[in-house]
Structures are given as C-alpha cells and as structure tokens.
Structures
1.
Amino acid sequence: EALKVTFQAGASTLLFKGNNVGNDKGIQVNGPSVASQFLENEFETPATFTGSNGAFLDINGTSPLHAVDTMICRNSFQIVNSITADCIRVNYADRTYITGNRFGRGATTSVDVQVTANATDTMVLTNIHPFGTAALPALMVADAGTRTVFAGLPVCHKEVVDIFDRHVYLHCADQVYDWLIEDPKQLRCLTGS
C-alpha cells in the first residue's frame, strides 16, 4: 500500500491532504481509527493495480475496532478503465462522510463506493459521477450497510431508490415527484421550519 494506517487506541485525526498518489495497492485505514480525513487528493492507478480489498481507498476497521467519523471530501479518483477496482470501500466503519469527490471508476463490476454489511451510518452525498449509462445508480453506491444515506444526485431517480430495498429518507426542496414513490400519501415528510 502507498499508506497503511493502524491507530493506537485513543489516537485520532489522520489528515491526508493535497497528495497525488499512484500505486498498485491503494490506501488502507484500519481500526481503531478516529476522524481520519482524506481531502483534495488525486488518486490514480496503473494497469497493474490490485488494491486493498479491491479498492483504492479502503476504510477497513475490524470488529470491535471500527473506523469512525472518517471524512472523504473533494478528491479525484482516476481508476484505469481496463481493470476492476472500486474507488472507496467502507467496512467496519461508523459515520463515514463522503462528498464532493470525482469518481473515474474501473471496468465491469467496479463501483464508486462499496458499503459493506459491517458499515453503519455511511453518508454518500453529492459527488461527480461522469458516466451516462443506464446502470449508473447501481455503480455509484453498492450498499449493504445499515442506515446508509445516499443523496448523490440533484434529482433522485426511481432507479436510485430501488437499489436500496429498504427505508429511504428523502429531503426534497419543493416536492415529491410522482414517479419516485408509488403512493406519495404513505410518505411522511419532515420539515425543519
């Protein structure tokens, strides 16, 4: 790995900012990590890339030593399109916050953000996903986590909602679109005003 981090109990706040990283193994953050921040980096892969658990940035806590409160913001992920590799993997992690990134994903089954069943309260907010295929939503976030929030599109299409197959919490500026929910009367809207 270009960087493999394991925290001592009680230590916190790794700040990884403004780097250009290209390697075969990716970056792995192990638990117990607290408040790691990956900000404004360029992550690039060669054609020989295998990654850390198949991802460039692998937030990989353990049970019971989770990675908590990780921030991944304003990075550029450039995964060579001839390989299968995910940009970010979230595993044994709580409250991971992912926003403002540009994802250039690899081939075939590669996804931008892989959230495993061991992740809780992951927030994947607005990012740049420059791919216009019909399978786009399923390739943006592969979610098996608990209480994952995905607000990755300015307009949330029905296909995005369908991939979660559980409760979906929506914040709509002005309306609930009729194509989004089969029976809008069953949706309870909460407002802050």
Note: The mean pLDDT is 80.
2.
Amino acid sequence: KERRAESVGVLTVLAAAKPSEPLPNYYLGCFHQAMGKKAEARKAYEKVLKSPKGKKFAMAWALLGEIYGAEDQDLAKAEKYCFKALELDPNNAKAESILSWIVGRAIKDRDQGRAIEITKRILKAQPKNGKQWGVLGSFYKNMRRLGDARAARTAILEWESAKTAFDAGEGEDPGAKPAEVTFESLRAGPLA
C-alpha cells in the first residue's frame, strides 16, 4: 500500500508538471482503478483524453468505458467510449470485452435488436472476429433467420480456413496442406 501511495504521489506531480503528456495520467488512472478509487480513476482518464496525444490512446477510452458501464451503469456512455477505443485500435480486447458484456445486458433486458446492433458494430471494427460472428449467428438462429445464421457461420469458416492455411505455412511450401476446418470442429469454439 505504501508503494502504491508513493507511486500515486509521483505520478500526480509528474501529471501536473507535464499536462500535455497522457501517460502520467493514464498510469495514475490505472493505479486508482486498481485501488478501487473509481472517481479518481475517471478524472485521470478524462485528463488523458483532453490532451492531443491522449485522444488517440485507445486503452484510456476503453477503461473509461469500463468505469461508466460497470460502476455507473451508464451503458450508453460505456458503449460510446468502447467503440471509440475500437475505432482507434480494432484489436482492443478490453473494449470488445466490455461491449460483449453490454450485449449480454441487452439480452438480459430482452432487447435482442440492440444486442444484434452492437454485435454488428463490433464486427464492423473486427471483421475477422470469429467469436462475434458466432454470437451473431446464434442470434439469427434463435430468431429463425436461418439464412442469416448460415451466412454468419460461413464467415467464421472462411476466416478460420484462411487462418489455418496461414498457420500451416501455405504459400511457403507448395506441398503443405492446411488442416481441415469443419462446422463440427468449430462447434466447440465460438459456436457453442
């Protein structure tokens, strides 16, 4: 605890001395969040986003989304911040995770249309995300939109087949054959 307090003190001084630099406030936010001080974490992350460099810092957007969603239950704000994080960094796992949680909340609230809308927006940022294609396929299957469900699952198969071919080194050795990816083999993964 003493070391955390000391670190927070050093970062506070550094953040005040260099307000245009986003990292001191980012790390200050991380420390506060880890210590359960969400209000202080929020203030630090908001300071990050006020600086020109910080506006491009995807993780700060995602962590603010986490605070707004989990702590404040402001799902609209959480969604906005997380989609900004994905816009800046389409591979931001934290933002995708929070958005997936929001999708779960929409399902719990019986708002499948909203859940589908958010899932499609995630896929717009991450078109090769097999898990999200599987989620979308499941939504469509539950709605008896079997053609759309099949199309979503086909997207998984196409991506996984390409990934398997790449992983097998296809193109490097003309005799190499990619492992076969079938619908059944994916059932245990994103389609479960």
Note: The radius of gyration is 21 Å.
3.
Amino acid sequence: WLALPGQFTACREMLDRLLEELEERKRTLQPFGGERERYLAGGGKMPFLLAVVHDLNGFLSGEDGSLLLEKLRELGRAGHKYGIALLITATDARSVHYSLKPLLPQVFVLRLTGEEEYDELLGRTGGMRPSEGLGRGLVRVETPGRERGYAICEFQVDVPFADAENPYDALCAFVKEKSAGAAAPGTRQLPQ
C-alpha cells in the first residue's frame, strides 16, 4: 500500500486497513494469550508488517490530520506486540507530535542544524554529534537489565538508488515490484 504526503484519502485508507489487520491479529492471537511468539512457535504464520510514514508533518497537514494522528497513536501503542511496526520520518524535532514520541522506542537522528535538537530528540547526548559526511547520525540505544539506561551511538546510512534520476520514485517502484505477488500462500496481501 503506498500513500504519499498530500494523498489524504489514501493515507486514511491505509491506516484503516492496518488497524483492521491489527484487530484481526488480536483475534487470531487471543487463544495464545495475545503472544505472537507462542503462535509462531506453534506453527502459525504471521508476517511482520512495517508501515512507513515519510514526512510526518506532510502526512498530518490536511484536514484529517487529527484523525490520522489518532490512528497512528493506536498503531504505535499496540502494533509492535502484534507484528506491526511504524517507521516515521520527520524533518525536525517539532514535526513529531508530543503524543507520538513515547510510542516510538527507537529514534535515529541524521545531521541537524541546531545543536539543542539532538538533546531534545535523544535525551542527554554528552555533547556527542555526528561526524562530518553525508548519512551520518546518532541513535539512542536502550541498555537492558537492572541498570536501565541508554547509550548514544553514531550510525551511517546510504542512499538506495542514488544514481537514479529520482531515488525516491525508484525506491517506491522497487518496493511495489517486490511486493507484487509476495504474499505467502493462504495470506492476504495489502492492496497497492
């Protein structure tokens, strides 16, 4: 399913379909105590879904913005437990609504213009900033165990289809091509 910023009807339909899938998964997992791992261990099949929202600000800027935000909150609250994850991109710290921030357990931050934005998005960074170069950024990594805390680490990304005339269009075409007919036997595929 592909819904681009500005295509508010398609965005709403995409979220509605994902929420329907979430409810269906809840019903399927109920006999297993709501635990996806127990269901999979018993031979059940349930693919992990990744919902990508590119440019959250553009996604929420239409007249249905508050409705779309509520649907994203619902997916963020319960989705991961049932095998549905959200990947959200934003242009700055203020683009991510305060009610969504606690529902996003992992935050990757590419190079920012304002030094204070790193602390706002990641917590205390100890003054750490990404090295110079394209695709460099920081990530907050939670540390497990009794001494729960976090570490700030640097990461490097690459641009897929960088040689294409329009890398974004090339990536969308690639995903569409790979997802065509990719559903496992006996499963439904989300519409394109």
Note: The first strand starts at residue 49 and ends at 53.
